[in-house]
Write a structure and sequence with these properties.
The structure is a single chain. By secondary structure, the chain is α/β, with parallel strands linked by helices. It has a 7-stranded parallel beta sheet, sandwiched between helices. Strands 7-9-11 form a 3-stranded mixed beta sheet. It has a two-stranded parallel sheet with strand order 8-12. The chain is globular.
Length: about 350
Amino acid sequence: MKILITGGAGFIGSALVRYILSETQHSVINVDKLTYAGNLNSIPDALQSKDRYRFEQLDICDSTAIRKVLQETQPTVIMHLAAESHVDRSIDGPGDFMQTNIMGTFVLLEEARQYWSTLEGAAKADFRFHHISTDEVYGDLPHPDDVQGELPLFTESTSYAPSSPYSASKASSDHLVRAWQRTYGLPTIITNCSNNYGPYHFPEKLVPHIILNALAGKPLPVYGNGSQIRDWLYVEDHARALFTVVTQGKIGETYNIGGHNEKRNIEVVRTICALLEDMVPTKPAGVDHYQDLITFVQDRPGHDARYAIDASKMSAELDWAPQETFESGIKKTVQWYLDNATWWQQVLNGEYQLDRLGKE
C-alpha cells in the first residue's frame, strides 16, 4: 500500500511516518511545505533512506503540484495532516490558518476526487481520504470546579462550537470533508484527537516549552491560574491509532482518539518540574527548585476550560487503546529531550533545515 501523508514533517505527521516505515512494509509519500514547524530531522536518516520513502516539498494549496504528485505516485490512501495548528498564532494572524486549513483542504479534496475518479476496480474500492483533525472543533466542556456530578466527554456526535480562529478553521475543514463524501461519494474518514505530546514536538507547544525553559532557567509561563483541563495523548499512540483507522475504519465514519488522561495545565507543568528534579538535579544558576520558575500570565482570549475525549468507539470497533499513561509518556518525553539536545537546539536556532535543503 502507498500512503500519501500531508504534513509528514510536522509533529504528528513525522510520528506517523516513523511508525509506518518502521512497523509496516507500506510505502510513504511525504508531502510537506516545510514551514517553520516542519522538520525533516524528525525522521531518522535510516528511515528516509528506505526505498519505500519519498519526500515532496510542496504547498497543499498548489493544485497543480498536488495533481502532479498524485499522478506520479498513485497512492492507495491519503492521510491529511498538513495544517497550521498553534492557537496563539491563529489569534495573532488568522489569515494563514484560513488559507492552509480551509483552502488547502479544499484543494486536496478536489484533486483527490479527480484522482479517485480515474481509478478502477480494486484501486478505486481501496482508496481512502483520511482527514486528521482536533477535539478543539467541539469547543469546551464543563469544568469540575464549576459543576457537580458526572462530567460529559466529547463524542463523535458532539456539536461543533469552535472558540479560536484555529479551531474554527479545522471545523471548516471537517465540514468540507463530510460534504465531499456526501455530495461526491469520496471515500473519507475523519479522526479528531486530543492534545498530543512526545518526541520531536516543536518548542512553542506547552510540554516542550516548559521542559526547555526549565533547563535554561527561564520562566515557565502558565495561562491564567492553570486550571484548564486537557486530555493528553502520547504521539506514538496517536500514530498507531491513525494507521488503525486508515486500514480498518469505515468510510464516512468519524473516530475520536484520546489518551484517557485529563490533566490541568498546572498539573502538567508541575509534573515536568518534579521529573526534572530527579533527572537533572543540577539546575541553572539561581534556581533552587524548578517549580520556582512557574509564572502565571494573562489568559489567552477565548481560552477553553476543558477538553476530554470519549474514545470508546475506537476501542469497541477497532480494538485500539493507548499504551502509555500520562505518567509513563511524560517521563519518556522528558528523557527524549534530555537525550536529543542537538535536535531541539537546531530548532531553537532555526538551523534544522540547513543540512537538508541547503537554504539560507
